[in-house]
Amino acid sequence: MSDALSTQIHLAARPDGWPTPDDFRTVRCELAPLAAGEVRVKNEFLSVDPYMRGRMNDVRSYVPPYALGETIQGGAIGRIVASAADGFAVGDAVLHQHGWSDLVQADAATFRVVPETPGVPLSLRLHVLGMTGLTAYVGLTAIAQLREGDTVFVSGAAGAVGTAVGQIARLLGAGRVIGSAGSAEKVALLTGKYGFDAAFNYRDGDVRGQLAQAAPNGIDVFFDNVGGDHLEAALDAFADGGRAALCGAISGYNSETAVPGPDNLANIITRGLKLEGFTIGNHLGHAPEFQARMAQWLAAGEIAYDETIVDGIERTVDAFLDMMRGANTGKMLVRV
Amino acid sequence: MSDALSTQIHLAARPDGWPTPDDFRTVRCELAPLAAGEVRVKNEFLSVDPYMRGRMNDVRSYVPPYALGETIQGGAIGRIVASAADGFAVGDAVLHQHGWSDLVQADAATFRVVPETPGVPLSLRLHVLGMTGLTAYVGLTAIAQLREGDTVFVSGAAGAVGTAVGQIARLLGAGRVIGSAGSAEKVALLTGKYGFDAAFNYRDGDVRGQLAQAAPNGIDVFFDNVGGDHLEAALDAFADGGRAALCGAISGYNSETAVPGPDNLANIITRGLKLEGFTIGNHLGHAPEFQARMAQWLAAGEIAYDETIVDGIERTVDAFLDMMRGANTGKMLVRV
């Protein structure tokens, strides 16, 4: 087998509703000889994230849709195996956005060398120390303007972003943290390992009623990863002046038709609520501040995390679909 | 007829859907002799406003619901006919919130003496120079953070708030102002007298399509008085980073059941939108700044307005219902 053989997963067709394996194609190709300024990287971990589903559609968004017949782009981390660029040495760990392949080669400027800290696994750069953690931090601070003592509700709280939101909210002074998740085991994890004050299983139904019970005095901040019935429940539970950071709406990502929204939007007016959506690419200026704080929290043992790891690039699509179905706890990763 | 006979309109029952005359009761009563510190005021104009419909329901809101068997509260202006309070002279024009009656008597502290300016009718204190104008100003500035060059869309633009929003947006530097209204005559008024760049009749249907045509480059600011299909259309039309000031949702005020929301809330995330609801009572701190600017604009002839006046307190409920149906252009007032 050649040292230059790359296995890549391409988008073959735009999914209609739930993606199927037919929407993807595994392509093997021989990489060209390394050109000046390029590096070749053997990936160790690939990230599969909910937002990727949106990029598979051909709709206008802050980030352009994935191109058909090209490798699915996204966060990945690996090591340099060949370099023709100053400042990039063989063996360096690098973070990048080239996505779903085992071997990738490109302009060195598209890779970022990351320091390796004893006790901090490289994979954390793809979640608590990376975009996932930054998303949680920015949503709580810049978007939802979290205040000391606030009651915070996080939907889809056992996922990669959700577990970070609950813990960061607590570290930033939230008075009460509530989460929803899709199984009794995840609910137990939230109130145990992750220190949530209350959690409930949304598959038991009646999200409105369960949230009302968990937040008898209402909520001040809502960090939404789910949308749909969760947004509706939050709108009912909000205290006056409440703020929502809308980060994701996974409940609707695989709908084939447009789904009507909550029936209680009038509460936005009568309670003076603020709902703000965000995609993390527009808030990268907060990264240095976030990374400094998160490194301290990790070193002090104040941040727990989980990884659900799937082995083998050939299982990347399965890992993505399982993540969309909620099979993961914490961050879903593919180990190449 | 006694000088102390007051005709008052009370809430008799909480309306279910559209209010009917049976939900109100006209009560005549003899006022008590004037106590120390009180004034007696003969009203000249009563305000009928969309928000009053919400206060007829027994639901939680920033403002408490109207009490059954009491006079409907709201803005009114009149003149003092008897005074037992220092600083309040017979003949003074006073603004107050005692609502739907022809003669009202209460603690002088609940009335505000307003200066009379030649050429500025008293009734303006109930709209462009009052809460209505302040609502438009606060929504555009403090809530939607209007910027120079923004394209602004106002729903229900021919109403009292809407006509003020369009003109204030222009005066504050908006690049393009678009409005919707419920008749061809109102549309003509918007693009004529009120200087809107484009307007359409929402009763022609396809609000999404009509807005897209009026705003080919999208909208930056949405000032919503209507909700429902208008909010949905705006969410489709928003440019990245768009901001909505949600002021009213008259399309749903008389629904007997909860109505599902827009089917495109996901745009809030992908376009990084901000939706904020407000009720003017929480933003009265902007009143001095607003009144100074509006007085200048009025003096310079830069603000047009309309009043739809109904004569006779006995027609107040009819005026209120007609306003809810959109029979008014500009401010709907009852002349006592």
Under the CATH scheme, the architecture of the largest domain in chain A is 3-Layer(aba) Sandwich
Counting helices, strands and paired strands, the structural category of chain A is alpha/beta
Q: Segments of chain A where pLDDT lies below 50 for 5+ residues?
A: none
Give the helix proportion of chain A (percent range): 10-25%
- According to CATH, what is the class of the largest domain in chain A? Alpha Beta
Number of domains of chain A: 2
Biggest interface pair, counts: A-B, 36 and 36 residues
How would you describe what is shown here?
Chains A, B: Keywords: Oxidoreductase. Chains A, B: Residues 19-334 form the Enoyl reductase (ER) domain. Two copies of one chain form a homodimer. With 336 residues, chain A is α/β, with parallel strands linked by helices. Chain A folds into two domains: 5-123 and 306-335, Medium-chain alcohol dehydrogenases, catalytic domain (Quinone Oxidoreductase, Chain A, domain 1), CATH 3.90.180.10; 131-281, Rossmann fold (3-Layer(aba) Sandwich). In chain A, 25% of the residues lie in helices and 26% in strands. The first copy, chain A, has nine helices and 15 strands. Chain A has helices at 51-55, 131-143, 160-171, 184-191, 207-214, 229-237, 266-270, 287-299, 316-325, and strands at residues 5-11, 24-30, 38-47, 76-83, 93-96, 103-107, 111-113, 151-154, 176-181, 198-201, 219-224, 238-246, 274-277, 307-311, 331-335. In chain A, α4 (184-191) links the parallel β9 and β10. The longest helix of chain A is centred in the middle third of the chain and has 13 residues, at 131-143. The interface between A and B is large, with 36 and 36 residues. β13 (274-277) of chain A pairs antiparallel with β13 (274-277) of chain B.
